[in-house]
Structure prediction request, 373 residues.
Amino acid sequence: HIFASKATSNVNTKHESPHKMSDKPKRSNNYMKRGLESIKEESSHSASGSQHGSSASINNRSSNSGNKNIKNNFQSTASDDMISTSSLKLSSLPGIDAFTDRALLGLLKAFAGIYRDDKIRNWKNDLRLGYGIGAFSVDMIIGVHAGWAVEGAVGSEYKIDATYLSPHVNMASRMMSACKQYGVSILLSEAVEELLSEGARSKVRHLDTVTVKGSSVKQKIYTYDARHEGVNFFLFDKSEEQANAEADNYSPDIWDTDQDLLSMRQHISEDFEQAFNSGRNAYLEGNWMSALSYLRKANEIMIETIMEQGFLEHKLQHLISSTEELEMIKSRIMSSQELQEDEWRVRNEMGDGPCRCLIQYLENRNGMCPDDW
Prediction:
């Protein structure tokens, strides 16, 4: 078995037209590189996969709390035995929790890096790209899965590429694609969550339980709540030497001390987590009306939290001319009444993506749970 990782960075306008990035953020691989070096010393048998990029389409849930809500994205026809990583017993590998933590940290640091890099940040204000109104942005979404992969050169005498092939690499790609439907920046499979340290597992959020097309295996999907709006990542920049030293001296305590990680997750409150978890559990148990109530409450808590952190002032600065006008807009957004188009868009951006996804699914079915759920 080998370590396999595949990455694609995309640049998106608000019309979601992708263009390849030429300037890549620095020092995004310190944790992944150090993790790979450390675990290779302890074991020669291991596997993991990840991919990031953009696009999504999720629909159709199934019965028994295992939901086919990633049907269109998960097109794998591999057998359950191939999809399942339990037969590989990745958790038995020495040092696998630290390696998995480092892999996730490396991806989250890359996420922070694109919002810290001066060249990339300046693109937003480039008249050639954003028309002077910030209509252009660079964003990243990430999907992570764990399993075996085959590495090699694939192609013909005319064109050949080094690549990784396996149903697990495909699963990472599907997880990545599902990010947009759930409105998150990163999705982790259950196979990855099980390999994380306790400290890391306490920071990821169980969003849903799904089944993959072509498989009857149910799996939970998770996210690390990473938000860049209103976060000044450039304040936490480090030198190459500092970044390498931190990667060399990794400790599980980093999940509670690293400024990048704390800042990108500062919008998550205990009240929100309690409301969302109650709504998700009620939804999976088939108590859909109760689920709607909890999920709507969680979404309102998120909107209120984001407003308190000053996101609204930053987002509507080109529309606001006075403090009185700002207070009127805040009142309308909180009450959801008489909102203009820009205000509706901002309200949705301040809300929680997974809450919106589940609420929409339940409302489209009038809150009525099917008999065979």
Remarks:
- Residues 149 and 166 are 5 Å apart (CA to CA).
